[in-house]
Amino acid sequence: MSDVRRRHIGTAERRARLALRHRLAPTARATDPEEVAASLVALHGTDPATVFLAVAARLADPAKAVPETERALYEDRALVRMHGMRHTVFVFPTELTAVVHASTGLTVAARERASLLKDMAKAGAPDAAWLAEVETATLAALARRGQATAAELAADEPRLREQFVYAAGKSYEGVHTVSSRLLRVLGVEGKVVRGRPLGSWTSSQFRWAPAPEHPELDAARAQADLLDRWLRVCGPATEADLKWWTGWRVTEVRRALSAVGAREVTLDEGTGYVADGDADPVRAPEEPWAALLPALDPTAMAWQRRDWYLAPELRGDLFDRSGNVGPTVWWNGRVVGGWAQRADGEIVWRVTEEGARREAEAAVAAEAGRLRGWLGATRVTPRFRTPLERELTA
């Protein structure tokens, strides 16, 4: 992994890699959602609209984003929405489900199940044997239905409606329903996934579906596989970036880096890593480019250390208090502002850097028109709203 002839990869080259590998430069755009998802490894799925907006920003024909992504998710099942890194919901290529489950899901799943059983015991709710019976019946009902809401599953298995008090006597005391907690546990355990929403593609109300069958992989090998895939998309990256994105312990990150033969390079902020065979220089796209990326976009959220593409003074405007990024305007590999959609459908944007504003105005305006053109009558409000997005829509 270490190399005394370490190459330096500067900010300009990192931005060039981002432009091409994240399908943001016009010459690098993809033809379908499967190609986008494979290129990025994972699409953030916490906000359902993000998946479709992120795909559209990277397609040669953005009008295909909604019908083709719905096809891939719900008909062909080439893509699947499931829990992954950092206990976050993502959309992955279906062939990656086994890798994601073994590399990031098992530890979280054990913790979630233990937490559920502990909370139920404290509340005097039925024991683990009772919960196991409910789980078996729930999975059988879901298999019969194919897809179902929690309410539909509770009609088949009434014990899912049982409630118990959570954190009794605390300021955050609440009442939990067995269905909400159990289905969440089954999700992180890789037994169920999120299916077709009840409403349109922007809806956060969804059905559950059985998870695609997949082999049980060795956790260390799966971690090496996931890290290698991610480095080929987002490398170079620091150890801190890798630890943050995966949610692993630093010892797991280092073990995976060694297993894949990752190469050390130098970055402006210190030591970074690229995948084996990926240290050669990458040239920037010949033409300058602009992009309007949605809230929680996988590019904006890919690295923990972001100064090379995001000026620190912009963070207060573009992130909420929990660290969720809002809609961003990009110019040649860096974030230069934000955008929003008003109630009348107009796409409004602001570039805060004066030099970039002069250079990028026409290109950003064209991207705003491209976005407005395929959105049509659809209105999109980010799930996590940020200061600039609120200001632009006021």
TrEMBL record:
Native organism: Streptomyces griseochromogenes
Protein name, per record: Winged helix DNA-binding domain-containing protein
Stored InterPro entries: AlkZ-like (IPR009351)
Higher taxonomy: Bacteria, Bacillati, Actinomycetota, Actinomycetes, Kitasatosporales
Source taxon at top rank: Bacteria
Pfam annotation, one family: AlkZ-like
